[in-house]
Write a structure and sequence with these properties.
The protein has a 6-stranded antiparallel beta sheet, with no helix packed on it. By secondary structure, it is mainly beta. It has no helices and 22 strands. 0% of the residues lie in helices and 45% in strands.
Length: 228
Amino acid sequence: MAGTLWGDREGSEPTGFLLKPPPEFASPPHIHNISYRGVVIEGVIHNDDTNAKEMWMPAGSFWTQPKGEVHITSAEGSGSLAYIEIEEGPYLVLPEEEAFDSGERPANVDKSNLVWLNAADVNWVDVPSSASAQDGPKIAFLWGDTSEGALNGSFIKLPAGFDGSIHSLGSSLGAVVIKGPVSHAASEKALESGSYFSSKGESLHALAAHDNEVVLYVRTNGKYTVQP
């Protein structure tokens, strides 16, 4: 099953959607007409070429799948959930006989291999100097260009007890809750894992992590500040 969070996966525009495979799912070898990025939200997922040894990626892992490359996608057990993101559509599943080499190469980044940086040490993520670097928000870069106005994606980790905001200074910001719940000032209910919020132009997202650590996948084309 798939549920669109933003965009239209049957259209031509960039899109983000949730993918919920059935229990013990194992796809046949196939290709896609477009490249995509994925983040595991719940359960474990394997995504690789047909001859690869299974590598089960747990929640919080990230992968990319190039267009035209034959691969399989599997989910172990039940309850797996992933976020999928494309830069153009439509998103099609095609037989392996139509494979082609786009020149792109896949990446599978297990949660344990992420490199977390103190957000206070990243010169384009403005964090008040009063915030503790070690105990404060952290960031893990995933893809894209972090120069002014360029599109990029990263994880932001908010520590338990965080009560502050993300101030977007670019033209757009979208965030998927990978590990929740997190309270958002614009929502009456806490946002659980798989939830999404976004904004256009300069904007402020007031967030509270309460007793749990929160991980957000953030897609943006501008700078932002994290304000405890």
